[in-house]
Amino acid sequence: MTLYRDSALVLRSWRIGESDRVVSMLGENSGKIRAVVKGVRKTKSRFGARLEPLSLVSLLCWKGRDLDVVSQAETIELFRRTREDFDRLSKANVILEATEQVAQDGFSDPELFKLVVRVLRVLEADNPAMLLGSFIWKLLASQGYRPQMEMCVMCGSPDSRAGFDAAAGGVLCDEHAGGRRVSLDALEVISNSLNGKLAQILRIEDSPLVVETETLALKSLEATLERSLRTVRS
Ligand SMILES: [Zn+2]
After folding, report:
1. What is the share, in percent, of the chain residues with pLDDT greater than 70?
2. How many A from CA of 186 to the centre of ligand 1?
3. Which fold, 3-80?
4. 190 CA distance to ligand 1 centroid (A)?
5. CATH classification of 81-225, choosing from 1.20.1440.120, 3.40.50.880, 1.10.10.10, 3.40.50.720?
6. How many Cβ atoms sit within 10 Å of the Cβ of residue 215?
7. What predicted TM-score, i.e. pTM, was given to this entire model?
8. What are phi and psi of 190, to 5 degrees?
9. Residues lying with their CB under 5 A of ligand 1, a single-atom ion
């Protein structure tokens, strides 16, 4: 077996057997990693809480055929404020789950790693209202999702932008919006998020616009993944 070293964010972990755990992580250079941690339930586990979800670690792993095996893990960042604050932690859980679903096994994606770590640091420091919504739009954009924002996806009319349909892939005109109406402000936030204009979006204060944008983002993510996220109540 070969050893490799990487920085990794722990996304999820679950028990296998009597005393082992599997951790799913996003490695900076390795993409999604699934690795066994031996003996975590022993009281004096040498890994302690370092491999809990939301930990950023420096990792030394043995490459395995199906699952890798963690050899060493040193804490880089624990995001303590986020762990201790219900609102922050709920958002972090959605961020981790969305990341786990989007990341692909063994597919190196350093940009995705940078995006997720950056957003978790902003959550830890400031927790701006629009963070989760804008992150999900950026996550979708990073995976190649480009909704049509200029004209109606049903008829091509550029005259009115009155609705949005994630599954159809973009905006809807007044005639086609039906029950899928959204505000122009929400469409503006979506466009700005997809185009990376995050600074101005993150200044938006808590408002119905935040909820609207977040809901649209999560629906689009689910339409893209074709299933619901566990951490989001529908
Ligand atoms: Zn139309």
Report:
1. 93
2. 18
3. OB fold (Dihydrolipoamide Acetyltransferase, E2P) (2.40.50)
4. 19
5. 1.20.1440.120
6. 14
7. 0.90
8. -60, -50
9. 152, 154-155, 157, 173, 176
